[in-house]
Amino acid sequence: MKIIAAYMLAVLGGNADPSAADLKRILGSVGIEAEDEMINLLLSEVKGKDLTELIASGREKLASVPSGGGAVAFSAPAGGADAAPAAAAESKKEEKVEEKEESDEDDMIFSLFD
């Protein structure tokens, strides 16, 4: 991802065909050392392609990826009925922790105005 960002920075900065040395210089300016293999792979994949076309094709591919919004699947806890009391006890512990945090906040608020 860092190499892609460096490539995009180079192209948006006016270098229509950045080299591996250009990308290394950009990444090196923020203390990142990139592998030559990864840089060369990226450059071979984008050679001769327009950045805006690459972004547009990437958006099309992302549009077909499901991104949630559906119902959440729920399953019973492992262990069947034995796990239910443990889950109930755990939720009670969480409630106690939340209550304590709230009371600490209340104490802080009053001490600020006293």
Automatic annotation (TrEMBL):
Highest rank taxon of the organism: Eukaryota
Gene3D superfamilies according to UniProt: 1.10.10.1410
A Pfam family per the record: Ribosomal_60s
Keyword Methyltransferase: no
Classification via InterPro entries: P1/P2_N_sf (IPR038716), Ribosomal_P1/P2 (IPR027534), Ribosomal_P2 (IPR044076)
Annotated Basic and acidic residues bias: 90-99
GO cellular component, one term: cytosolic large ribosomal subunit
GO molecular-function terms, A-Z: structural constituent of ribosome
Swiss-Prot/TrEMBL keywords: Ribonucleoprotein, Ribosomal protein
Biological process per Gene Ontology, one example term: cytoplasmic translational elongation
Segments of this protein annotated with the region Disordered: 85-114
PANTHER family for the chain: 60S ACIDIC RIBOSOMAL PROTEIN FAMILY MEMBER (PTHR21141), LARGE RIBOSOMAL SUBUNIT PROTEIN P2 (PTHR21141:SF5)
Subunit structure: P1 and P2 exist as dimers at the large ribosomal subunit.
Function statement: Plays an important role in the elongation step of protein synthesis.
UniProt similarity note: Belongs to the eukaryotic ribosomal protein P1/P2 family.
Full protein name: Uncharacterized protein
